[in-house]
TrEMBL record, chains A, B:
Subcellular location, record wording: Membrane
Highest rank taxon of the organism: Bacteria
Protein name: Amino acid transporter
Membrane-traversing stretches: 51-81, 117-136, 148-166, 178-197, 220-243, 264-283, 329-355, 376-398, 404-426, 447-465, 471-489
InterPro entries from the UniProt entry: AA/rel_permease1, APC_K+_Transporter
Keyword annotations: Membrane, Transmembrane, Transmembrane helix
Bilayer topology term: Multi-pass membrane protein
Gene3D superfamilies reported for this sequence: Amino acid/polyamine transporter I
A Pfam family hit: AA_permease_2
């Protein structure tokens, strides 16, 4: 049984890797770009949709603003890229925003950034996979209304791939990312050529009338109009997520790490910007209609569209129009886009466990997050991320539009704090730097980060104002909970460390004067004999066997057998008026301690070792409770003397080594 | 925190009881009757309803058969009572049917009876409480459509009462049972007086037309009619459950136990029979209509009754009619009947844990079922029963009619096997008994049990044939699963006992030649110092400290500190290429064992003892996994050296003593 589990695990997760092979899992730029950039690039698959969808609330005329909204998004994107190029140079160790904030703004800001990032990694997975599920169901009618199941399956597959380790991920993900760039490039170029040639067809949805909300019957005017524009912009800022992934992932780059990371960032910014603007322009040229609620907003001759109308994502609609007459192109675009979204989620699977591990090392999360699994990947973090994302997907019914309201807040909290940290960083460095060349470069960097801080801070306020009631409050709440939790964990570890610190060396060196061995006995059988033999071998000053008198008959039998065997250890029978095992033993051990407080009491407990979990239910229940209770008594050592039952043979006790740290009984 | 839990537990469950006080919890007849008879008496609250409901399928004319069906039920009831009077005299030890079957028919029949009884106890709770919930909702309109919740709450309350112990149950339950007998007696007498005085009013439902199933438009004729009569009889046999409760409960009676139990049985049979017949006759006289699906079967002028018509149970309808003009009587009858049904469920709470404990003692169920909780009640059995009953209630939507299809099968399996066992018992006894007076009494008993076997066997076949597809298959399946499970558990315990038996005394006396102590070290702090001191105090032949080299820096720091402190124990650093803790330690310990196989290796593990469960998540994870794995290695003793953190102070390790045996970490 366990062999099968082991074999299955090896098949799914692969062979363990040695520490030394960690160096070989470093990524060259051509692999790092797809691994880290897929997040930012893939948001092109839903960010334009959200801009159009939000503007649609003000009717068809408002759509004319979409390229301008896109342009503002691109400006902010490029500013953020420029800022982060300073970050990766100054902090190449991979702590990313967390490290920048902690170093320059203190621990509180650090944990703030960390909680924001953790929440956002989870949302990256949830949003990307939900969007992927919708691309899949647009192309494969059989998947319609099963998006949640498809999304959960996708997250599970990603989890397994990541448990195999980072290297395979890189190679496996490079090809589809480049395919995606190529196919979006082909779409944009073909579209542009046909537009200028004057034969660009209209999108299938361009024939529908678009009905806005009653509040916007005058179009985008007044405060309401400005607010809607701001909301469209805030949604479009989803395109900016993923930039920070690179700053957290610098150590995974080949040397020179910082330079390579900075170059990758620039590449990413350029490609991403081009894609967003091109898609929004093409959408306008082909008259794409994309509504939040298509069944009430889209109409034909004043009648709503039929209930089985399925709204295809914008890139899909563009592919249909641009490659009209060649249907396979639509399926290729849908497939590649769906795949790239899955890969985007993978970025979070790279970033989350690293951050969790750093937080575990710093004592803000349980230390076991810092322990590596046997595939060099941080198994615990990967599994935690997967579970949280699945919960979100199920709770929000895999709706990209609803999930996107929760998104971005975290990223911009960390953007803003990180840029503020960088400002402080340069100011501090400038205080001690004498070299004028270096000083002028630092001043330039400080200006870049200052502009970055101004912009990201403004966007953060816009996002909070426009999205708070739409779901951003959930994100803030989750961040707050994580913040309090991490502070509490750190405080706990600090307190324990203080409590355990060696204050008085001589006291620590004092030895107990005598050893009093107590062997617990219930029956005369092999495990008891072994426990007696082991206890005697340790040559204690006092040794006695102890049993609890629950059943008169059993005790009489035990005493008779003890006498027949003429065992060289006296047997003591403890009275148990309430027919319990634990309390009388505890009471006796405490009385021994009270009589000679400087003695050490070693309690030997014979224990069955079983091969199946259900056997555990049939044995050891009393022994386990007793062990747990005895540990609360100072001056007592609990020694388990195992007896390996036949069913345990072939087991090594190592079966549950990877994944979450389950507790072996 | 734990103080509050403890105080709450004491408040709900009461103070612990000493073993000696067990004698004082014995029941006099006047208390034993209500405790054990409430099951059988309470079935009068639903058995007549089920007879009428089944006959109604053949239309209003078929209702004329109801007193005759009731009469057959009563005949079988009296035969069963007569048979069980023989049982309690021959087997006064409380094993009941299980003991009778095991002793006379062998272990397989014994487990068969046991699984039948266990299933039936659960159904007793589920059926009685569901019926009670319907009485409650008939009287209290606010409870309508919340029967499931009400039933689950009632089971939970019963569970708590029973965890307090059997004595309070007896006293608390005597008064309502006698009230019930009095109020049903008053109902029957008043009804009879008014009937013969010629002024008995008709029931409210008598005005409805009753529509039978199309198959029975000719009334009760042919095979279909006979089958329906048989089904009505089978449902009516629900009145027989509870008789075996007394035979299982003989030890709880005052002396002379057997005679008192036999007298109680006779009382019970007489009262129960009178009630059933009286109620069915009264129902006929008042024209009560009771249908399986009132909203299609009951009509007014050819139109179905309105959807908010609530069908009141038969006893309630009778109370309305007989005590017409005095509405409080209806509420009193409903309240007392509902209460008695809850008390009936209590019979199962008395019987199930006792049987579970006997099966635990005999090794058919996990041994912990044999351990008593601190209130002399078998806490584990009580909680198991409550959970199973709640599952059934929720699964069957608290529908008495649907649950009753599952009921009775188990009882009659155990009736039949038990009577067959008694036949064998008398035949065997007669073989050796010389005294002619005793012989003739034995022969008379044998005839009674023979008749009992014939009747109960026939009823079992009728029940199986008429109810198999209606739900009895579920019961049979559950019985089968329990049967296989119990056989498997016993086989496992037998195999283990054989494996552990002392075969070679001299080998068991051989001592390991030397002791090799390994102290696991991760940091230099108080817990490590204590583990070192304790290990040294035990004066092993070899002692060494061992650490796992996961992180270069940490190890260098540890070594430096070790040298500074000049500790008298050598420190060994184990290589960990895969950054694990468990595997390198395991490998090292095995290599020590391989080099000197006759040595004993004691591994000292410093362990934190924490006061809160969540602290456990932050500590000890590596230690726990390591301990579990080391136990699989022969020749190794795992010694936990506890360090009590400040948060553990005030904890005794005994907080989770009652209820299920949770495992303390």
């Amino acid at each position: 049984m366990s062999d099968i589990v082991d074999a299955a695990k090896r098949l799914l997760v692969g062979r363990p890797k040695r520490s030394e092979s960690l160096g070989r899992t470093l990524l060259p730029k051509r692999v790092a770009l797809p691994v880290f950039a897929s997040d930012a690039l893939s948001s092109v698959a839903y960010a334009p949709d959200e801009i159009l969808l939000t503007l649609s609330l003000a009717g068809v005329a408002a759509l004319a603003f979409s390229p301008w909204v896109g342009l503002v998004v691109v400006v902010v994107l490029l500013i953020v890229v420029a800022s982060y190029r300073q970050n990766v140079r100054a902090y190449p160790s991979g702590g990313g925003d967390y490290e920048v904030a902690t170093t320059n703004l203190g621990r509180t800001a650090g944990i703030g950034v960390a909680s924001a990032l953790l929440v956002d990694y989870v949302l990256t997975v949830a949003v990307s996979i939900s969007a992927a599920a919708h691309y899949a169901s647009a192309a494969v009618p059989g998947l319609r209304d099963h998006e949640v199941v498809a999304a959960v399956v996708a997250v599970s597959v990603l989890t397994l791939i990541n448990l195999r380790g980072v290297r395979e991920s890189g190679t496996a993900f490079a090809v589809p990312t480049y395919c995606y760039m190529a196919i979006i490039g082909a779409l944009v170029v073909t579209g542009a050529v046909r537009y200028f040639a004057g034969n660009l067809p209209q999108a299938a949805s361009s024939g529908y009338e678009l009905v806005g909300e009653a509040a916007f019957d005058q179009g985008l005017v007044g405060i309401g109009g400005a607010f809607l524009l701001a909301r469209a912009f805030a949604s479009g800022c989803a395109a900016l997520t993923g930039v920070e992934a690179i700053s957290n992932g610098v150590p995974a780059f080949r040397k020179p790490k910082s330079r390579n990371a900075a170059t990758t960032l620039l590449l990413l910014g350029t490609i991403s910007s081009t894609m967003i603007i091109s898609i929004l322009l093409l959408a306008q040229a082909t008259g794409v209609r994309f509504a939040e609620d298509p069944h009430s907003q889209l109409q034909v001759n004043g009648e709503p569209v039929s209930t089985d109308y399925v709204q295809i994502p914008v890139i899909g609609q563009l592919a249909e129009a641009v490659f009209s007459g060649f249907p396979p192109a639509f399926y290729a675009v849908s497939a590649v886009t769906g795949l790239i979204l899955v890969l985007a989620a993978n970025t979070a699977f790279n970033g989350f466990p690293v951050l969790g591990s750093i937080l575990g090392r710093d004592g803000y999360l349980p230390r076991q997050l810092h322990t590596r699994g046997d595939r060099l990947a941080f198994s615990n973090g990967i599994v935690t991320l997967a579970i949280a994302a699945i919960v979100l997907i199920v709770a929000f019914d895999a709706s990209t539009t609803r999930l996107i309201q929760l998104y971005i807040v975290g990223v911009f909290v960390s953007f803003t704090l990180s840029q503020l940290g960088m400002l402080r960083h340069w100011t501090r460095e400038l205080r001690t730097e004498p070299n004028p060349t270096v000083r002028s470069r630092m001043k330039r960097s400080r200006v870049v980060n200052g502009i970055g801080f101004g912009f990201t801070g403004t966007v953060l306020i816009i996002v909070l104002v426009t999205k708070f009631t739409h779901g951003a409050w959930i994100t803030l709440l989750a961040m707050g909970v994580l913040f309090v939790l991490m502070r509490g964990i750190r405080k706990h570890y600090d307190r324990v460390r203080e409590e355990l610190a060696l204050d008085d060396i001589s006291a620590a060196r004092a030895l107990p004067s005598r050893v009093h061995a107590v062997v617990l006995v219930s029956k005369v059988h092999k495990p008891t004999m072994r426990a007696l033999a082991y206890a005697r071998a340790a040559r204690p000053n006092v040794i006695e066997a102890v049993t609890v008198g629950v059943d008169r008959e059993d005790i009489d039998g035990l005493v008779a057998e003890w006498e027949t065997l003429d065992l060289p250890v006296p047997l003591r029978i403890l009275d148990s008026p309430y027919r319990e095992i634990t309390r009388p033993v505890l009471k006796y051990v405490r009385s021994v301690r009270r009589e000679s407080p400087r003695d050490l009491v070693i309690v030997y407990i014979p224990e069955y070792v079983v091969g199946h979990w259900w056997e555990q239910l049939l044995h050891n229940q009393s022994a386990l409770r007793l062990k747990g209770s005895l540990l609360f008594t100072p001056g007592v050592v609990v020694a388990s003397v195992p007896w390996q039952l036949a069913s345990s043979r072939g087991h090594t006790g190592l079966e549950d080594d990877t994944f979450m740290h389950g507790r072996r009984i």
